[in-house]
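It is worth pausing here to work through a concrete case rather than discussing structure prediction in the abstract. The textbook approach is simple: state the sequence, then state the predicted structure, then interpret. We follow exactly that order.
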Amino acid sequence: MELDKKITEQVRLRYLENINYKMRENAVTTNGIRKATNNRQRVLANPPIFSVDLETGDVANQKATGRCWMFAALNTFRHKLIHTYKLKDFELSQAYTFFWDKYEKSNWFLESILKTSDLDLTDRKVAFLLNTPQQDGGQWDMLVSIFEKYGVVPKSVYPETVSSENSRGLNHYLNKYLRRQAHVLREMVANNASEESILEARNGMMEDIYRMLSITLGTPPDRFDFEYRDSEKEYHRESGISPTEFYEKYVGLNLRDYVSIINSPTKDKPYGKTYTVELLGNVVGGHVVKYLNLPMEEVKALAHHQLENGESVWFGCDVGQMSDRETGVMDLGLYEVNEVFEMEFNLGKEKRLDYGESMMTHAMVLTGVDVVDGVIKRWKVENSWGDKVGKKGFFTATDRWMDEYTYQVVIHKDYLTKAQLDA
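Step two, the predicted structure:
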């Protein structure tokens, strides 16, 4: 249909005749959509008070990177270490995990390029790979592969650098290099190069990448000394421990005992089944990315159970939806945009996923829950954006918000039912 200028003029006149529209225009043009539509009552209705509230320490800050999934996992480990070893202001090194994830993702990309070398450059799989050879984000099972292979270290041993806190430059040049090497490998395959020569070329590429990562992020330690003074002022020291030994001794979690649970109410993913994603991963030969899809009530019950037993919960959500960085409140009624614009914006969870209006954009940690007369009211969320947002870095999510915008939790197998374990 072609737009008729006469119809548009009639629309304009009706708009100008409505004094309420002018008032809304003044408010929104001056303050922006979110501030102008903010529902103060929803903020007041959600104080940061919880019947189950785990001790966590101060929040961390991922800075200008997409490392939320790493921070969330390392924060759950940190909670355990703080409690067990009476630590204060302790963090594990996110930069160390970042280094090895970049290294392994680069190898994963080159492996995937070889596996798809018989496909045209215009094939969707090849185009997907070349669009973003590697990036900061990832999934829980990808972290399992990194932790199992490389362990973890304290942040004091491997601190942040300019490129770990702002990864744009590193990603730009690493992806440029990987695309160039993708061309080299595809040409080698096309020219019937031997497996030995391809392997030799790949080893040279990975040496280049290790050098690049070491120059930008620092050389990761092979062994280190771990020393600290606990909250009772007692001094501790352990010399010459490796990152994997440190993980086994001080973190001590068998990550294979944890399951990624998702809530995806779309018709292509029936509940009670386990799914994976082709070409998603980081460590060749590592842990396969898998998700068990369950109804949201079961997802929340599992998270609640784990919190009640004193263990925080890694979870993924669409953080930008109905969420206020200033107050830290996440509530479906937080912004009255429907009322201001007299338009309907909500699709519902299933259709938001189907039509690309929502997806999992951020990982955080559930550290508390408020239950009144057996009914969950709200959840305490530890973010990784520093202590200047929310309530000293913590957010409060209503239970209804969780229903609509939470997509994944990571739960220990002990809390799953037999039917869930079988699935």
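Step three, interpretation. The CA atoms of residues 119 and 356 lie 27 Å apart. The chain has a mean pLDDT of 97.
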